[in-house]
């Protein structure tokens, strides 16, 4: 089947071997928080910040050991280059009673050891400014309470140090993504001052010395969250301007825009100005619901923009979803494979030909060709890629086995 598919693609000028070879090297950063419903290991408290995990599927990882075992099992079923995306709330404190403003690299040493053990390319990082008593009234870096604001500034500074440690240990960059839940449920009296406080906080965080080649700082905007429907301090305009003026990068989460806005269109807009663009790939259903990523049209379009613009090293792909209503490992693998599928699909498009049709205003042919491409034997190439990665299309049986042997006993 692969031999025939190869020929069929070749007729369109597409080299399936080159596509497979390229796909192997595009890293996807996989979020640790799908494994335990974003609860974390530092006992910060129940999930807050306007995000929500729904469902009560049995077998959630309840501690570091269980989370590691689940990650190991799930990652083994994922093809391609993998990175691990950690939140600060996953610090391994071992009884140390430090708060988040005092976290140190040593609290993450066990994660580094694990990442090396399972052969990951790198580790990415996120300050955790939710599920904690100091996220007072839902405000962190924009809080009018100076001691609260300072606490979170210190937390972010600590995270930059930890990120540098990850980068050095893994010999690969570390993306530090700053997302805060700050906002108001109802019409605010003052929309500017909280943003000025956020700006000041970011300035203070970025005033620490860190190696900019190794540590890439990003800011993640959002439209609204549950309980903070009327106003979000870290909005899109705020962060895009902040990032542009301060030499950091933007992180686009495709659940964080109005439903008719598309991240696939935002990627090339930012590529015109930025050396790096970070992504949180998710699937919002009616709101930022963080459903498992599937091989759908917008995901294909996102991948197309990355691949056809030669931006596989500029766009830092990360996953961000959390579903507790189904087997969590399966959720992980399904989403990661969907991302890989979309990248492969994009790598198998005759991008040069399509581009030249656009430039020649050959829109009739462009439309016809685009439709023709949709039913090429993509599945055969995907299966071949999996085979070469030592994997099979059906991963569900392995997950079921793990559920029976491990998860059901928790
Ligand atoms: C929330 C943001 C944020 C979180 C993670 C857990 O809306 O998307 O990225 O999902 O940090
Ligand atoms: Zn996100």
Sheet having the most strands: 8 strands, parallel
Q: Over the alpha carbons, how many angstroms does the gyration radius reach?
A: 21 Å
Report how far the terminal alpha carbons are from each other.
Answer: 42 Å
Ligand types: L-rhamnitol, zinc ion
The amount of helix comes to 40-55%
The beta-strand count equals 10
Mean pLDDT: 97
Shape: globular
- The structural class is alpha/beta
Query: What portion of the residues fall into strands of 2 or more residues?
Result: 5-15%
**Strands of the biggest beta sheet: in what spatial order?**
3-2-1-10-9-8-6-4
Structural description of this entry:
The protein has 410 residues and is an alpha/beta fold. The protein has helices spanning 2-10, 16-23, 64-75, 109-117, 146-170, 192-206, 236-246, 263-271, 297-308, 328-347, 351-359, 363-373, 378-388, 396-405; strands spanning 28-31, 82-87, 122-126, 174-178, 183-184, 215-220, 231-232, 249-253, 277-281, 315-319. The strands form 2 sheets. The protein has an 8-stranded parallel sheet with strand order 3-2-1-10-9-8-6-4, with helices on one face. Zinc ion is lined by residues 220, 253, 280, 320.
